[in-house]
Design brief:
The protein is an alpha+beta fold. The protein folds into two domains: 131 residues, DNA primase, PRIM domain; 113 residues, Alpha-Beta Complex (DNA primase, PRIM domain), CATH 3.90.920.10. β5 and β6 form a beta hairpin. α1 runs antiparallel to α2 and α4 crosses α7. The longest helix is centred in the N-terminal third of the chain and has 19 residues. The N and C termini lie far apart (41 Å).
Length: 312
C-alpha cells in the first residue's frame, strides 16, 4: 500500500451506523476538527470507528479500556483517563478494579454504542488491557512494544523481524501491527492461564536474550539516556493493568495515523506507517484481514516460559 495523504472522509458502512445512533448519546458538534493539519473532524472519527467496527470489536470485547482524550483535537491539551467518564449512556458496561492506592471503574469495551459515545467525547485512541474483564490478571496475549530511539520506523521493522524469528524458534505464532507512531507492536495470542507477572517475565526474558544477541541494535534499558541509538524492547505492556493501543485505533498524531495490522511480508524498513490513516483505511479494509484468525490460534505458553527461563 503506497503512502497517501487525505483522500476524502471514510465511507459510512451499509445502513450508516451513525444514522442509527440513539439520540440519547447526545453527540454534538460533528464538524469539530480533531486533526487540524489534515482537516479530519469528529464526524470523520465516528465514521472511521463505525467502518472498522467488525475488525475492532473482537479486540475490545470484554476488555477494560483506558481512554486517550483530546476534546479540542490534536495540538490542544490531551489526557489519559481510566475512570469511566461522566456523560456516557447509563447502561455502559463497567468493571471496578482495586489497585494498591485506588479503586477505578473502567469502561468495558465491545459495544458500538459505547465506542461512538467515546469518540463523541474526544476519545481519539483506545488503549486496552491484555486480559478480559472477567479475569483481569490472566492475559490472552503477549505484547512486545518496539520503540526506536532514532525516531525511524525502519529500526522498528527490523526489530520486529528479530522478535518474530525468536518467537518462531519457540513455535509461537506472532502478529505484527503498526503502533500508529514510529514503532511497532508484535502480539502473540495465548491460552488463558499464566498470571500477568508470568507473561511479563516471559516477554522480558526473551527481550533480554535478544538484547544480548543484538547488543548494538536492541536494549531493555528503561532509562532513555542509557539506550543510545538502540531500539527499546518494551515488555511492560504485559504487566497488570497495563495497556496497548488497540488494532484499528486512530492516534492523536499529525496525519491521523491508524494502528494497523500487517502481514509479516509487509514488515519492511521502507514501509511508511502514516500511509495507514483515516483517509486510506477503507482501502485496507477491502483487503484480507491479516489478523483474521488471531483468536483462533491461542497457544499455550508454558513450554515457551520454561525455554526462555533456561536462557538466563
Amino acid at each position: 500500500m503506497s503512502p497517501r495523504g487525505r483522500s476524502g472522509p471514510p465511507a459510512a458502512p451499509p445502513g450508516d451506523a451513525l444514522a442509527a445512533l440513539p439520540a440519547r448519546l447526545g453527540i454534538t458538534h460533528p464538524e469539530r476538527v480533531y486533526w487540524p493539519d489534515d482537516g479530519w473532524t469528529k464526524l470523520d472519527l465516528l465514521r472511521h470507528d463505525a467502518l472498522v467496527w467488525p475488525r475492532l470489536e473482537p479486540f475490545l470485547r470484554d476488555r477494560l479500556l483506558s481512554l486517550e482524550r483530546c476534546p479540542d483535537g490534536v495540538g490542544s491539551p490531551c489526557f489519559y483517563q481510566k475512570e469511566r467518564p461522566a456523560g456516557l449512556p447509563p447502561d455502559t458496561p463497567t468493571r471496578e478494579i482495586e489497585h494498591e492506592s485506588s479503586r477505578i471503574r473502567y469502561v468495558v469495551g465491545g459495544r458500538l454504542e459505547t465506542q461512538l459515545a467515546l469518540a463523541g467525547m474526544g476519545c481519539l485512541a483506545i488503549h486496552v488491557w491484555g486480559s478480559r474483564a472477567a479475569h483481569p490478571r490472566k492475559p490472552d496475549w503477549v505484547c512486545f512494544d518496539l520503540d526506536p530511539a532514532s525516531g525511524g520506523f525502519a529500526d522498528a521493522a527490523r526489530a520486529a523481524l528479530r522478535v518474530k524469528d525468536a518467537l518462531d524458534a519457540l513455535e509461537l505464532r506472532s502478529f505484527a501491527k503498526t503502533s500508529g507512531g514510529r514503532g511497532m507492536h508484535v502480539f502473540v495470542p495465548i491460552e488463558i492461564g499464566p498470571d500477568a507477572d508470568e507473561v511479563k517475565d516471559f516477554a522480558l526474558g526473551l527481550s533480554r536474550h535478544l538484547a544480548r544477541a543484538y547488543r548494538d541494535e536492541l536494549t531493555v534499558e528503561a532509562r532513555i539516556a542509557a539506550r543510545g541509538e538502540r531500539l527499546y524492547l518494551d515488555c511492560m505492556r504485559n504487566g497488570f493493568a497495563q495497556t496497548v493501543v488497540a488494532p484499528w485505533s486512530p492516534r492523536a498524531r499529525p496525519k491521523a495515523p491508524v494502528s494497523t495490522p500487517l502481514e509479516w511480508s509487509e514488515v519492511r524498513p521502507d514501509l511508511d506507517p502514516t500511509s495507514f490513516n483515516l483517509g486510506t483505511i477503507g482501502e485496507r479494509l477491502a483487503m484480507p484481514d491479516p489478523w483474521a484468525d488471531f483468536f483462533e490460534v491461542r497457544q499455550p505458553l508454558d513450554d515457551a516460559i520454561r525455554a526462555v527461563a533456561a536462557l538466563r
